Amino acid sequence: xxxxxxxxxxxxxxxxxxxxxxxxxxxxxxxxxxxxxxxxxxxxxxxxxxxxxxxxxxxxxxxxxxxxxxxxxxxxxxxxxxxxxxxxxxxxxxxxxxxxxxxxxxxxxxxxxxxxxxxxxxxxxxxxxxxxxxxxxxxxxxxxxxxxxxxxxxxxxxxxxxxxxxxxxxxxxxxxxxxxxxxxxxxxxxxxxxxxxxxxxxxxxxxxxxxxxxxxxxxxxxxxxxxxxxxxxxxxxxxxxxxxxxxxxxxxxxxxxxxxxxxxxxxxxxxxxxxxxxxxxxxxxxxxxxxxxxxxxxxxxxxxxxxxxxxxxxxxxxxxxxxxxxxxxxxxxxxxxxxxxxxxxxxxxxxxxxxxxxxxxxxxxxxxxxxxxxxxxxxxxxxxxxxxxxxxxxxxxxxxxxxxxxxxxxxxxxxxxxxxxxxxxxxxxxxxxxxxxxxxxxxxxxxxxxxxxxxxxxxxxxxxxxxxxxxxxxxxxxxxxxxxxxxxxxxxxxxxxxxxxxxxxxxxxxxxxxxxxxxxxxxxxxxxxxxxxxxxxxxxxxxxxxxxxxxxxxxxxxxxxxxxxxxxxxxxxxxxxxxxxxxxxxx
Length: 587
Ligand SMILES: Cc1cc2nc3c(=O)[nH]c(=O)nc-3n(C[C@H](O)[C@H](O)[C@H](O)COP(=O)(O)OP(=O)(O)OC[C@H]3O[C@@H](n4cnc5c(N)ncnc54)[C@H](O)[C@@H]3O)c2cc1C
Hints:
Blueprint: H1 26-44, H2 57-68, H3 87-97, H4 103-113, H5 116-121, H6 124-135, E1 141-144, E2 160-164, E3 169-180, E4 187-194, E5 201-206, E6 212-214, E7 228-239, E8 243-244, H7 250-286, E9 288-289, E10 292-293, H8 298-334, H9 339-349, H10 351-376, H11 378-381, H12 387-394, H13 404-421, H14 427-432, H15 434-443, H16 450-472, H17 480-510, H18 514-544, H19 550-560, H20 568-582
Parallel strand pairs: 1-4, 2-4
Antiparallel strand pairs: 2-3, 3-7, 4-5, 5-8, 6-7, 9-10
Helix pairs in contact: 1-3, 3-7, 3-8, 4-7, 7-8, 7-10, 8-9, 8-10, 8-17, 8-18, 8-20, 10-12, 10-13, 10-17, 13-17, 16-17, 16-18, 16-19, 17-18, 18-19, 18-20
Flavin-adenine dinucleotide binds at residues 109, 143-146, 151-152, 178-180, 220, 223, 228, 396, 399-400, 402-403, 405-406, 480.
């Protein structure tokens, strides 16, 4: 059977078919450790990160040093001087890069959004000309999509490319905003509309072409080490051969690159969360109050245990998705698709999961940096401890690569498109099975297995989606509160299932030991917390419907979401105690 994005909602997944982070091989772990060691050496001794408003050479030189280690060519094919890492290893690399503070953003703009458009859409000449120079950082890359009046609505950009037939080139005029790496970039992927086109096209624009001026460095809340500027184009001459992909194909490029950027950001958020938790654990052990280490207080254990649960959950789902993208690539390769088609179609296939995980993981990160700061108490508020920087840096992740509101809506819209427009997913058929299952269950009140609980969440999502459509019809598009709650139910379900499958696979292969026992506890706790969130979202949806069917829906919610019986406090405490014992989160 072909693997499909969004399919988790209607089919059971065999644990053996998913990737779990316990399966990283030696090579992958070596890459992760090498990246983290490099960043520790270059950055962790600094009391303050160099601020790009004062010094952009630091980030630029660090990119050069990264290139010497081969880190700038990881996503580029060997033919063009790279190492062509598989997608999931690329995510692990991004997780490791998050230890580089704002340099992670600099690196992301260079190796991800700034160069993947060429990897995925470039023709042979463009790849040959630019990719080797990106891999060795001779050319530093940036991605210029956003404009003052075109943020979330990216296709509404006013930057224009006029055709200069005589000189076989385009002349670009316009203004871009918030462009990462702009202060030192040599190559910009610029999105602009050709003449009076409706849709964007993409261009490879070298700084050396002329007609480019830069604004001042933005004074930002966080990621202060990364360069962010406005970029102005005044009759910037771009040779015809530097059009990337097809005319008016730019928006498609932008969206697909963002699919990849979103799941990468999610992996980075997992890394940042682990970093924050590890700092918090060590501080909690060292800090004494009332005659003992604060790590011994139950309130602190709650925080550490909860951070660990959320990290474990996000990590499970992020790398499950990453591997699925790799598997899809292999499937498409076997069908004889070209390299570009393989990469793009695999990413598009998992657009729903990429969007969900961007939202979920970045919100886990915000939770973790906030609680880490709280564990540090007053010291957390001081720049000296370095946690306030993480708190500020993390905030951007909910804004770029599509805001979390946009990604919530996108995940739901994409699912509905596949169900009703392209008919790739048979949600209707899945929905039909529901009433009889429910009635049967009513007469068999029993303790549900984790698998049944997860199946219930899927059914609840389908029921609520159907009722929402019945209530609002095409107007549902404007009921964003309903959509965002549906999207959260979808994400909670996907994540809970990913954790459950991870632990099940682990138990099947490794039997049982104390670490696996902790992971099993996390899996149970995840379902417990998912249930609370799902019930809340479901009831909010029902309260928002203008319908009289509320009673039926409330009955469904009750039936499908009995709160699992467990003691969450004990579980969190035991997780926290294990973290304190090992002085780190190393699961
Ligand atoms: C530090 C930094 C670095 C960046 N780097 C880059 C880069 O390298 N390249 C690049 O091209 N861009 C970059 N960006 C831009 C970033 O991608 C945008 O800021 C982001 O897409 C949001 O656009 P906006 O700021 O215009 O917000 P807006 O689109 O104005 O959104 C404002 C608010 O309205 C909400 N909103 C907007 N539309 C809708 C809707 N339809 N329904 C519901 N709510 C909606 C949003 O969720 C948000 O809460 C960067 C931004 C920052 C701050």
